[in-house]
Known about the structure:
With 111 residues, this protein is an alpha+beta fold. The chain contains two helices and four strands, in the order E-E-H-H-E-E. It has helices at residues 26-30, 47-53, and strands at 12-15, 22-25, 59-66, 75-82. The strands form two sheets. A two-stranded antiparallel sheet has the order 1-2. Strands 3-4 form a two-stranded antiparallel ribbon. The longest helix has 7 residues, at 47-53.
Amino acid sequence: MRTPAGSDCPFYHADFHRGRQLQECRLVARTPGGGRWGPDLCGRCRVPAIQRANACTHLVLQARVRQGVLGLGRGIDISATCVRSGGPVPAPEVGCGLCHSLPLIEPESRS
């Protein structure tokens, strides 16, 4: 679904049918201790970029709302783990390296 920031996110949900005013981030809602989400955080969230770069089915994302000082610096912290490798993924855009290994490119031999 398209977020208020204009990007497509599989975790954003909005329902304005017949006067409803429901907007939620289902990723923050399913993360224990995810925090209080607001639609203003969609513009600072990395999840749409991660989903575009890495569509691995073994990647599990978690999102927590980062509270800033006096409302400044508020954002979303994303952490990722791989179910297959069983460990944290430091760069979710790239992946863990086990699920989708990069092909080795042989250098061309010069004659």
